[in-house]
Amino acid sequence: MAASVHRLKVTLRSVKPPIWRRIEVASDVTLAELSDLLECAMGWLGGHLHAFEAGGITYERPDPDDGFSRHAEDETEHRLGDVLTASGAKMRWDYDFGDGWQHDVVVEAIAPLDPSVDYPRCVTGRRACPPEDCGGPWGFGELLEAITDPAHPRHDELIEWLPDGYDSDRFDADEATQDMRAPRPLAEDWW
């Protein structure tokens, strides 16, 4: 069991207004486990490739068929507390290389484990995650423009394409926490 907890602020790059989460996770999670937790906290479904970059080192899941797509460390062999060792430490987490979602992950604090708290958890955040496969930050901006303007030529098409009940301003930390504690819907070892 972990003796400490990392409080992380995760901010999606290149999106205005900002989309971010503040989460608390055991310091001994592997980067592979952290990626699953980040997907849940942010609202991504999983199923896309991802990678971390910290201190000039790339960490990713190895492909058993052909190794890494580039020189990288195996994320299953590195723990969060060993990669980000102090408050203020940073890394980048890339999700879905095709859409190019980049996230800044910053350690806000490292504290002793509180036995009265259930981890992992999402403490707070702002705005909904973009829908999967919407074309990265540029495509998401166009999507938001189209769905808020009934006169936009793609308004009807994109409203129909959106997930049911999608509201770009909505975020619920309790739902994110539940997702972080539940099995991943697309967690298959297909890589």
Q: How would you describe what is shown here?
A:
This protein folds into 2 domains: 135 residues, Structural Genomics Hypothetical 15.5 Kd Protein In mrcA-pckA Intergenic Region, Chain A, CATH 3.10.290; 40 residues, no CATH class. The longest helix is centred in the last third of the chain and has 13 residues. Strand 1 and strand 2 form a beta hairpin. It contains 5 helices and 8 strands. It has 191 residues and is α+β, with helices and mostly antiparallel strands.
Write the layout of secondary structure elements.
Layout: E1 4-12, E2 20-26, H1 31-42, E3 50-54, E4 57-60, E5 73-74, H2 80-83, E6 90-95, E7 101-112, E8 121-126, H3 136-148, H4 155-161, H5 173-181
Helix pairs in contact: 1-5, 3-4
The biggest beta sheet is recorded as: 8 strands, mixed
Low-confidence stretches: none
CATH homology superfamily name of the largest domain: MM3350-like
| Helix proportion range | 10-25%
Query: At the third CATH level, what is the topology name of the largest domain?
Result: Structural Genomics Hypothetical 15.5 Kd Protein In mrcA-pckA Intergenic Region, Chain A
What would the average pLDDT be, to the nearest integer?
Answer: 90
Q: Structurally, how many domains make up the residues? A: 2
Number of helices: 5
